[in-house]
From TrEMBL:
PANTHER family listed in its UniProt record: OS03G0233200 PROTEIN (PTHR31048)
Entry similarity comment: Belongs to the thaumatin family.
Pfam families with a match to the protein in the record: Thaumatin
Annotated S-S bridges: 35-225, 76-86, 91-96, 142-214, 147-197, 155-165, 169-178, 179-184
UniProt-listed InterPro entries: Osmotin/thaumatin-like_sf, Thaumatin
Source taxonomy: Eukaryota, Viridiplantae, Streptophyta, Embryophyta, Tracheophyta
Signal peptide as annotated in the record: 1-26
Keywords: Disulfide bond, Signal
Protein name: Thaumatin-like protein
Keyword Disulfide bond: yes
Keyword Disulfide bond assigned: yes
Amino acid sequence: MRMGLSRNLPISFLLLFSVLFNLAHAATFDVQNQCSYTVWAAASPGGGQKLDSGQSWSIEVASGTTGGRIWGRTNCNFDGNGQGSCETGDCGKLQCNGYGTPPNTLAEFALNQYQNLDFYDISLVDGFNIPMDFSPTSSNSCKDIRCTADINGECPQKLKTSGGCNNPCTVYKTDEYCCNSGSCNATDYSRFFKQRCPDAYSYPKDDATSTFTCATGTNYRVVFCPST
């Protein structure tokens, strides 16, 4: 029986091939700050970057990446070693190597997944802090999604927090809102978010109207405070 190609090649070659394939199909994310105030952008993977109004930051993300996210942090203070804190979206340092603390508007993605598709969304499951647009830039056939409502200004009293609007899971920590059992439904709070940002995840099981796909190899743009 003829053995498959992979069984005749050294592991080191296969690893090199995998790395080169992922680099060749990497996606570029152009992160722009159109807010009137400074935003400390964060990305996992990617780290972090201070963006004054009008500035941008470009990051490369390897094909096959799952659980990727980009978000903005507000009112940050960091020392010379990049250690510090932020009012919203904090990860404890300028260069994030994990996720931020709520509330933070999230651009989430998984690259080169089922049927060679990228999956992307805007999520308010961790609450809201900055208006956001998340759009493919190298394809005209994929949806531009955004969340630009005045959620901070209209936030229900019990969800209000300094600099943002919490998701109810952060506040109440119950299965009804957090879906810890894997089963939950829309609530009055999730409907508050969904009515204002129909493209965005409003609670953990809000998949049907909140997940979008684009062909692998697409590049993307994340804009904080996009023009309406």
